[in-house]
Amino acid sequence: MQVYEAPIRDMLFNINELHEDDGFGNLEGFEDFDEDVTVAILEEANKLCRDVLLPINWPGDQEGCRIENGVVRTPKGFQEAYKQFCEGGWAGLGVSQEWGGQGAPHSLGKMVEEMTCSANLSFGLYPGLTGGAMVALEAYGSDELKNFYMPKMASGEWSGTMCLTEPHCGTDLGMLRTKAEPQDDGSYLVTGNKIFISAGDHDLTDNIVHLVLARLPDAPPGVKGISLFLVPKYLPKDDGSLGNHNNAGPTAIEHKMGLKASATCQMSFEDSKGWLIGKPHRGLEAMFAMMNTERVAVGIQGLGVGEIAYQSAVYYAKDRLQGRSLSGVKNPDGPADPIIVHPDIRRMLMTMRAYNEGSRAVSAWVSRALDAEHASPEPEARERAKDFVALMTPVVKALFTDLGHESAHLAVQVYGGHGYIQETGVEQFARDARIAQIYEGTNGIQALDLVGRKLPDRMGKNLRSFFHPVSQFIEDHGSDEKIGKMIAGLQQAFGALQMSTGHIAQKGMKDPEEAAAAATDYLRLLGFVAMGYCFAKAAKIAHAKLEEGTQEKDFYEAKIITARYFFDRLLPPVMAQMMAITSGKSSMMDMPAEAF
Amino acid sequence: MQVYEAPIRDMLFNINELHEDDGFGNLEGFEDFDEDVTVAILEEANKLCRDVLLPINWPGDQEGCRIENGVVRTPKGFQEAYKQFCEGGWAGLGVSQEWGGQGAPHSLGKMVEEMTCSANLSFGLYPGLTGGAMVALEAYGSDELKNFYMPKMASGEWSGTMCLTEPHCGTDLGMLRTKAEPQDDGSYLVTGNKIFISAGDHDLTDNIVHLVLARLPDAPPGVKGISLFLVPKYLPKDDGSLGNHNNAGPTAIEHKMGLKASATCQMSFEDSKGWLIGKPHRGLEAMFAMMNTERVAVGIQGLGVGEIAYQSAVYYAKDRLQGRSLSGVKNPDGPADPIIVHPDIRRMLMTMRAYNEGSRAVSAWVSRALDAEHASPEPEARERAKDFVALMTPVVKALFTDLGHESAHLAVQVYGGHGYIQETGVEQFARDARIAQIYEGTNGIQALDLVGRKLPDRMGKNLRSFFHPVSQFIEDHGSDEKIGKMIAGLQQAFGALQMSTGHIAQKGMKDPEEAAAAATDYLRLLGFVAMGYCFAKAAKIAHAKLEEGTQEKDFYEAKIITARYFFDRLLPPVMAQMMAITSGKSSMMDMPAEAF
């Protein structure tokens, strides 16, 4: 059973309570989004996700997309759902009002994204890619392009894509071959083949705006010779109506492990007319503006799937009767107790819950920083926010998607044999979540980005935006009666992280393979320290609320138990990855390639 | 690419070198299986698996099984492959010569099973279930039943199943409802519905011998009222030819996440004629004879998938060109280096390799004990072997299947985007491996079996069969120049295991939920100590061989590097699970069910 109700109470806790003291100040320009509006938006989004997107999630997986006469057809119900999505203004939720969007803060927008990803990850990719394309277009496009395309994309009338990968190059974009020939009218003719293009073609919108990486004739080799082009599926006329097909279309769709209702296309461009975005040979820069947004978005995908997996597992654990509680019969009128009484089922549910709440807390923190980067009145706070976003982007992407995938599999395990059967819909979560660890840069690439770029950048300045609040918090609360034990655990993990950082800084300086060998373990350790910090803070707030005699006793008590579970059960093994990190590269690199 | 060549050299290392001093003595009755015969059998099995079973693995996944007019059809090529399998005598490899089998030791048979599971897990289930059914039949069946059925099953002419699960009861078999009415001729009429029956119907054999759990009219409630019956699909005549259909057949097949070429059936029995196996109401005992064998076999499935996942990932890591080595260009004539040069790819390959070699070593140890249990000339050694098998059966089942699934996902990750596409065949490993963590008792149930039954049994006697050799080895080699560092790591992990055992013994005595809350972490810790012990022993042997000036320098050097990787990178986080174990049940159990 795929079961979902947006965790609005926890979302509000993260938006309003957890990060009040994050040092980013009061943000400007979001005055319209007060608490009432925030609640109203979350509740409306929940309705859309629960009542419109969720019901077509499993049928969409079973039906999949298909290609007919060169046109991709989405599964039944997707067109109607997309129409409702656009009519509700969701396509432009985070887009500037200048382009007809709502201009909502990331702090709110990411919560809505989480809901969409929970309810229907495949569906979410269609507007998701459009959102990413708008980021690059807004930041690097000419005014003419922006004025023409942005409003159509913000309304959802037209969608967008990112066309990077080619059969022989994914991570290593320096090898890409697609070409762009300049024309006299200032446009370009783009020719080449792309693969793995999400939403590359579909029947949800009349037109699709492809952002395509290609080489100009005079391009230097490697990544320094890549430019970015806007290539529409249909060439629009000046009045916005559609003209000729632009020879930019799908040649096939991929048969994938999951995410089957999202069309992943092989694309062909043949003298397709396009326009340069940004400067020649600087396409990667523009693409990275989009990629960074997308990476946080992909992290949220992991969280979204983790949340619905958790809720669906809880539903079953309360419903399925099997065995009796070891501490005495709990359901005397039934033939057996619900399996939620069993410790090992609890272990799985609590693990998923802690992953989700921990990820949501870190995500809210990063989202605040995404907002503060532009909307904080203090230049120093903006700078700190920017550093923090840079540091945490790969962590959010890799950690959340790893945990989301793990949660999906825990849900399958809670369902037992029934989880392996397609009809219950739970194994779909595991198949869908799996891609998020791969696309927008594999999680290994994220870890390399963290240790290879984000750590050394400006002598570790990014890291200070994270280390400072954590060490301050530990210092301030070490002798706190209520959360002292958690602080001790956090301090130990933070110590392991500092030691690991020292190891990477010292060894990696001389030998970059040493840093790379530590990367994946280090990213996880850093991510768990970030979650631990958020859990300790949350527990502190919860204790204070309980002392005050809050009406929401259950919510805050549950928050404390989940935090305790995290410190008792989940943090210690990750902390010990410090030993793996400091063991160095030799056992990883000594094996000759031919011995494998 | 699904790539496979049986790891025969490592198998021989495990059969002949690693466990020589295991204290089980020289086993009797396997004189025919000298080294030449062993090598010949492994090589023949490799040919069958690589050349016959592997080529139909991916097509079988794509085509799946189907049900037509009440009969299940296996995918193209399965019938022909099964014929070859039987003609080669593989169906009876481990079956006593009394019934026409080969009588090979488990030490050899499990290696062949690993190969089958690597090459084609779905295929392997058909003869695998027959093997399990033969174990129960041989141990508990009447001479009449055995004489009639065993030869037909040992040759593979007829296959077998285990029919346990019903829609409302899987783990909790006490609730089962299928009924058996005694008849005047000593037979029974069995009526009821079963689900999740592997190989419940298919077109590989003329007849199928179902072992069915059902209740007699006078059965007491719960698990003490369950009996086991042999119910053939067709009622055989006295001469062995087939008579009437026995109303024992499939009503549907399940649509599963993976293992699609294995028919998982919903079965209906309607006044189907059957014969009692063992005593009335003692069916669970007979079923457990079969279950225990099957649990080790399922563990081997995890290892098998892990091995082909590893090999397929290595193939791609050497083939795929992307990026340049951080320590200098390795493939100057190509546009990029093969990705095996990158540390994070190494991390994934070495992890898979260590899991596989570690699992194979433990599996060989347990297989030796399975043989020694019956074939050791010394009663004490037989007793010790039996204790060891009892202890390790849940560990083999749960740990190997967890690691196999993890390896399959690491392989997908090595393939990146191409791993998510069905055509490369790698995501199939992940989908196929997933079931092994669930069936034959979920891995959570295995952990409960370990801490709830196997640990306390006879005041911890089972555990001594494992603790004794490990502590002896640590004592003997603590100051070994070559492996001293590994011994230090092993000692630390062993200490964590002892402390965890003490926690469970002490707390679990008063409160069984405390033991249950520790179970899954404890199983993993115990399993990793077992692998660590095997790796340290293997490294010791390898160092000695290298000192002697062996011809196989590469093999032994690789063994040492893999062992180092295990101790450096994989053992520390698992060791730290001791902290999770000793934190107790409270953070797991305190949350009220309604707060989830």
TrEMBL record, chains A, B:
Where do the Acetyl-CoA dehydrogenase-like C-terminal domain residues begin and end? 466-592
Enzyme superclass (EC): oxidoreductase
- Cite the Acyl-CoA oxidase/dehydrogenase middle domain residue spans from the record: 162-271
Organism from which the protein derives: Aurantiacibacter zhengii
Name the cofactor(s): FAD
Q: Which reaction does it catalyse?
A: 3-(methylsulfanyl)propanoyl-CoA + oxidized [electron-transfer flavoprotein] + H(+) = 3-(methylsulfanyl)acryloyl-CoA + reduced [electron-transfer flavoprotein]
**One Gene Ontology molecular-function label:** flavin adenine dinucleotide binding
Q: What does this protein do?
A: Involved in the assimilation of dimethylsulphoniopropionate (DMSP), an important compound in the fixation of carbon in marine phytoplankton, by mediating the conversion of 3-(methylthio)propanoyl-CoA (MMPA-CoA) to 3-(methylthio)acryloyl-CoA (MTA-CoA).
All copies of the Acyl-CoA dehydrogenase/oxidase C-terminal domain together span 282-450
All residue ranges annotated as the Acyl-CoA dehydrogenase/oxidase N-terminal domain in the record: 79-157
Query: Where, if anywhere, are coiled coils annotated?
Result: none
The alphabetical list of record keywords is: FAD, Flavoprotein, Oxidoreductase
Question: Can you name this protein?
Answer: 3-methylmercaptopropionyl-CoA dehydrogenase
The record's EC number reads 1.3.99.41
What family is this protein classified in? Belongs to the acyl-CoA dehydrogenase family.
Q: Which SUPFAM superfamilies has this protein been placed in?
A: Acyl-CoA dehydrogenase C-terminal domain-like, Acyl-CoA dehydrogenase NM domain-like
